[in-house]
Amino acid sequence: MKRHLISAADLTRDDAVLILDTAEEMARFADRPIKKLPTLRGRTIVNLFFEDSTRTRISFEAAAKRLSADVINFSAKGSSVSKGESLKDTALTLEAMGADAVVIRHGDSGAPHRLATSGWIGGSVVNAGDGTHEHPTQALLDAFTMRRRLVGEEGAALDGRRITIVGDILHSRVARSNVHLLSTLGAHVTLVAPPTLVPIGVESWPCEVSYDLDAVLTKSDAVMMLRVQRERMNAAFFPTEREYARRYGLDGERMARMPEQAIVMHPGPMNRGMEITAEVADSPRCTAVEQVANGVSIRMAVMYLLLGGSEPALSREDTAHPSPAATPDGGAARRRVAEENN
Amino acid sequence: MDDNSSSLHPARPVLEAPDIKRVLTRIAHEIVERAKGADDVVLLGIPTRGVFLARRLAAKLEEITGSAIPVGSLDITMYRDDLRLGPARTLAHTEIPAEGVDGRLIVLVDDVLYSGRTIRAALDALGDIGRPRAVQLAVLVDRGHRELPIRADYVGKNLPTSQRETVKVQLTEEDGHDGVLLGTRASESEHAEGSTRLRRGTAPAG
Predict the structure, then answer these.
(1) Across the interface, do B83 and A336 touch by the CB < 8 Å criterion?
(2) Domains of chain A
(3) With contacts defined as CB-CB under 8 Å, which chain A residues touch B87?
(4) How many domains does one find in chain B?
(5) Which of A152, B135, B136, B156 is the most exposed place for a label (fewest CB within 10 A)?
(6) Which 3 state secondary structure label does DSSP give B109?
(7) CB contact under 8 A, B87 and A310
(8) Which residues does B40 contact at the CB level (< 8 Å), separation at least 6?
C-alpha cells in the first residue's frame, strides 16, 4: 500500500479518480455552517516548509484543520534549519514529536522522496513542491478544476480533453506533475514554451511540445499559464520580458480565439502583464481563484485517503494487496465491505 | 457475504418484495400519524440502501399527504468510530434538501439497525449541519445486539438474530430485486472471510 504522495506519476488512474471524487464530497462540506469534520481527530500533521509559500501552506493547513487534525507549522526561516540543522535531524525531531504526516516543501528536487524512503520517519510524506521536480497536489487540484468545468461528471476522468500548458516548463514542478497526471487521466497535453524553457528529455514525457502558442490555442479546452519564475532564472532564457509577453503571454485578443467553453488556468502567483494580462486574469474564464478553493478540497481528500484509515486507500501497481478500487470487481468489493458494516 | 460462503450456508429469505412494500406503506402511515400530517418532515437516508428506502418512503408519504416530502442522503463515513480499523473508506454523497434541517422533524432511514454505531455517527453528522426540531429513526430490519443506547421509532421487521448470522437487504435500485436474507457467517478460519473481517475490523459498526 502506498503511504506517501511524492509524485503524480505514482498515481494510477483509479487512484486519481478516487481522489477527485473524494474531493468532490469534501467540497460539499465547505458550504456548511460548520466546516469541520472529526475524521482526523488526534492525528498530527506537520507542515515542513523550507521554501516560501503562501497559498500551498495555508491550503494544507486549512485542509488539515477542517479534518480536525493537529497542525504544526514549521518554516525553515527562524528555525534550527537556519542554524545548520540537516534534513535528517529535522526529520528525527518531527518523528520524536509523533507526526502522523509530514507535508514538505523543499527547494531541492527529491527531498520528499529522501524523507519518505530514508526510514527517518514512520508517517506519511506528502510532497508540497520540491525544487523543479513535482507538485502533485497542485496537479490534482488542476485536474479537479478541469473536470468540474469541462466534464462536470463524478467518477469520470479527462479522456480526450486537450490541455495546453504555457510558459516556464523548465523550472515548473506544476507542469511536470500535470503532464503525468493529465495523461494518466486520458487528456492530451501540449506544452508551449520558448525552446530555452523546454527541459531536456521532454521527448520521453507523455505530451507534445510546440513553440507556437497561436497555433495551439484554437485547439485547447484548457490553457494553463505558468508563472515565469524569476527567482530560478539564472541565465538569459529570453531576450526581454516584453518579447516573452508578446509571444507567450495570454491577452484578451488571444483568449477570444480560444474555443467558447475553454478555460484559462493559473497556479498562482500571477505576474500580471507578463504571462497573463489583467483583462484575462479577471475574466470569468480564468479559474485562478476557483483553483485555490479547490485546493483545500483536494488536500482534504489526500489527507483523508492517506490518514483516514489504518492504512492508505491509494494503491500502487506493484502492491501485493490491490485496493478494492483497483480490482476489476472493485465496485462489488467496495459494496460488499459497505454492506457488512450495516 | 461473498458467494463462496453463502453457498456453504444458504441464506434464507425473511422478507420478500411484497412484504417490503407493505412494511414501507405501514411505516409511512406511522410517520404521518406520529407527526400529525408530516408537514415538517425531512427524510434523510443513510447510504447506500437507506437512501433508496428514504426515496420510497417519500413517495408513499406524498401519496398519503398529497404534498411533496423533502428527501436527501446523509453520509456518515467521516463520523465513523471504526475508521482506524480498516483502510480509508470511499465516501458517499450527502445531499441535504434545500429546505435544510433547522427546526424540521428529521427521519433518518437505514436498512438494518444493528450495533447502533451508524446512527450515533449520523446524529453527530446531523449536528454539524443544523439543529432539527426532533430526530427519529426508521429501519427496515432491527436485528438487535445494540452497543449504544439507541432505538428505532419505526421498525419494518424485528428480526432476532445471533451475531453469527448475517442480514442482507437487497433492493431493486442496487441489487436488481427486493428481499431480505438471513444467512450464517462462514467460519472465521476460512480464508476469504478472514480477509474480509480483517478489512472491516473487529467491531461491527451498523
Answers:
(1) no
(2) 8-134+292-317 (3.40.50.1370), 136-291 (3.40.50.1370)
(3) 1, 309-313, 323
(4) 1
(5) A152
(6) strand
(7) yes
(8) B103, B104, B105, B133
**Beta-strand pair B165-170/B179-184:** antiparallel
Tell whether A30 lies on the interface with B, counting CB pairs under 8 A.
no
How is chain A split among helix, strand and coil, in percent rounded to 5?
A: 45, 15, 40
> pLDDT, tens digit, for every residue of A305-329?
999 988 777 764 443 343 333 334 4
Q: ipTM for the complex?
A: 0.81
What are the tens digits of pLDDT across the range A155-210?
A: 999 999 999 999 999 999 999 999 999 999 999 999 999 999 999 999 999 999 99
Nearest CA in chain B to A24: B93
Could you tell me the residue range of the domain that residue B48 belongs to? 15-161
Q: What residues of B are in contact with residue A37 (Cβ under 8 Å)?
A: 78-79, 128
Inter-chain residue contact B48 with A1, CB threshold 8 Å: no
Q: Write the pLDDT tens digit of every residue in A65-88.
A: 999 999 999 887 767 777 778 889
CB-CB contact of A191 with A198 (8 Å): yes
- Which residues is B167 bridged to in the sheet? B182
> pLDDT tens-digit profile of B174-206?
999 999 999 988 754 444 433 333 333 334 445
> The pTM is what?
0.87
From B87, B93, B167, residue closest to A25, measured CB to CB: B93
CATH number (domain holding residue B157): 3.40.50.2020
Å from B29 to nearest chain A CA? 25
Contact B49, B171 (CB under 8 A): yes
